[in-house]
Amino acid sequence: MSKGGDLLTAAEAAAASGMPVRAVYRRAAERLPKSAVVRRDGKMFLTTVGAIWLRLDRDLPRSVPASIRRRLYGRTGAKGIDRAEVGEGAFRYVCEPGIAAGEVDLFMREYRRAKALIVEDPEVQGGAATFRGTRLMVHPIADLLGQGTAPSELMEDHPHLTAEMMEAAVVYAKTHPRRGRPRKPGWRSDTPVGETRRARSGM
Hints:
Number of helices: 8
Strand content: 5-15%
Mean pLDDT: 82
Distance between the termini: 86 Å
């Protein structure tokens, strides 16, 4: 199980639970017990147990009411990650978080390994994430892998790049998404804004 003291940003919790960052904010506000959410300096963080609850929330049938979800999650976190059951009228809802806990724990171990290989040093590449001891930036490697570039091809181009580093790049890029994209220069627009034709005077 992951360390209970871990606090995850919304992006980290999204990667751990397999859902979009927007959904993390929404579900943290509407469905998770208050103990899962920590606010510091105006920012929201989730506990690792909260990330497990998010994973469960993603997989539960949509028909399960939000009130039942909160009760289930509250019970699974009271004495560790255990099976919980809640009854409401003729219905009974059961939550077994063992698989979700294992998936989040695996992600956290991979994420810790990635962070050990990657630094953000203001003196190197302007503070962009790079692999420790190199000037090789992380996000471009993750982008190329996401576009289908073969790992063997990347290793030919970058002799110091290892399989472990490439795995770390993918995990790190998920938890540290780039903020926006560079704007495309106006002169590179696919279509002109307008066209003006002038008749040439006779000679």
